[in-house]
Amino acid sequence: MKKNTDVLIVGGSAAGVTTAITARRHYPDAKIAVIRKENQVLIPCGIPYIFGTVGSPENNLIPDAALSKNNVDLIIDEATSIDRAGKTVTTSNGDVIGYKKMVLATGSVPFVPPIPDMRLDNVFTVIKDVDHLNKMSKAFDEAEDLVIIGGGFIGVEFADECRKRKNLKVSIVELLPHCLLLACDEEICIKAEDKLKENGVNIMAGARAEAIVGNGKVEYIQLAGQEKLKADAVIMGIGVAPSSELAKSAELKVDERSSIYVDEFMRTSDEDIFAAGDCARKTSFFTGEKSRLMLASIASIESRVAGANLFALRRRNERAIGVFSTVIDDLCIGSAGMTEKLAKETGFDIVTGEASSPDRHPGGMPGMSNVSVKLIFSRESGVIIGGQIHGGPSVGEAINLIGATIQTRMRADDIATFQVGTHPALTASPIAYQITNAAEVALTKMR
What pLDDT does 395 receive? Predict the structure, then answer.
């Protein structure tokens, strides 16, 4: 069967949905369709919380109403090939869909390391599929020892949620010296690890998993150095790779990591096909080099660029900064831009400024937590290039503010003097406002 649409979006997760909504806002008369193979779409960042706080995959879904309310057609099918010359897509059901403009939002797939016996029962990658996640949950109900390989955000969040299951002993195996070390400096990584340890999580940093061992079903992890770690279930949480097979088969340009090439307008090597999200190539905001960052927040921004540019070039992609946040028990952590370690390794001459104070004033106000901020500046220009923060729930929005100062290339003087609104029940005191005071501390070092 042949169908036609003005805009065809392949993929229905964060990038696909945001692209569709953005396209509708900018092109109100266009016919827009999203094609996806999943019956239900999960909120990507909420997946770890299925196993603790949220309780089930069904409680962690992106509602289809986000599309229907915006007059976007939803097609449940799989796009299997693209005819660029004829501007059509063929699906697994044999349908042919014609398009004027297309957006590839095919996302990513779990990276699978070359570890022996990955196919044993109860060894799981984190696939965005409801049935798969329900299978994981059932396995965890019956397990006693869960090992998570990878101590980045996904691994740490899984550990913090799964340790809430009374039957499970949870361990993290991380190759780097600390968990979260790619996003945070050492002092914050240690705070995160200490919080996990307080809650019974076994942290094995600086350790390498050499093999997964068992007879049909996983029994233990063989670590380098002959140490064995008992495991009834394993989560592989060491990252993702772009899902770009559809683009490759259409002979669109991809890089050596299989990320789909896009320009500053999110156009691929075919000017009528755009790409956004984990499948699309990322470029560092700071160096202009290729970036490995893959975040739903970045996907959403790229989608807002792609969706606006379909029939007229209206926006440019500002490149990937990387703004992270997470929570471990009651410890909230945020990081934006470069860490101090990465900045030095990249060749920046930097200064840092730190400030800590209660996020309410006076400190006896209900809901108060102590919040600490670290800002990182280029010594030569005074421009902010990174920031980290930890404390209570106010961290979540504060790190977004720091991200905005990075994106707008604010200098330390700008941050020390920008105007903020404060209130006793909502923020730190204007005298002790952490972000402005951290900038002031950095300025004293620059002088």
Answer: 97
- Which CATH number does 323-442 carry? 3.30.390.30
The pLDDT value recorded for residue 52 is 94
pLDDT number for residue 225 = 86
* Digit-coded pLDDT (tens) for 53-107: 999 999 999 999 999 999 999 999 999 999 999 999 999 999 999 999 999 999 9
Selecting from 3.50.50.60, 3.90.180.10, 3.40.1180.10, 3.30.70.3460, what CATH number does the domain 123-238 have? 3.50.50.60
Q: In the prediction, which pLDDT does 118 show?
A: 84
> Within the chain, which residues score under 70 in pLDDT?
1
Give the whole-angstrom CA distance, residue 155 versus residue 126: 10
Common-topology check for domains 2-107+241-309 and 123-238: yes
C-alpha to C-alpha distance for 104 and 341, rounded to whole angstroms: 35
pLDDT at 116: 81
pLDDT for 214:
95
Cβ 17 vs Cβ 66: under 8 Å: yes
* pLDDT score for 318: 87
Every domain of the chain and the residues it spans:
2-107+241-309, 123-238, 323-442
pLDDT at 393: 95
Check residue 113 and give its pLDDT. 85
Please tell me the predicted confidence (pLDDT) of residue 335: 98
What pLDDT, on the 0 to 100 scale, is given for residue 324? 95
Overall CATH class of domain 2-107+241-309: alpha beta
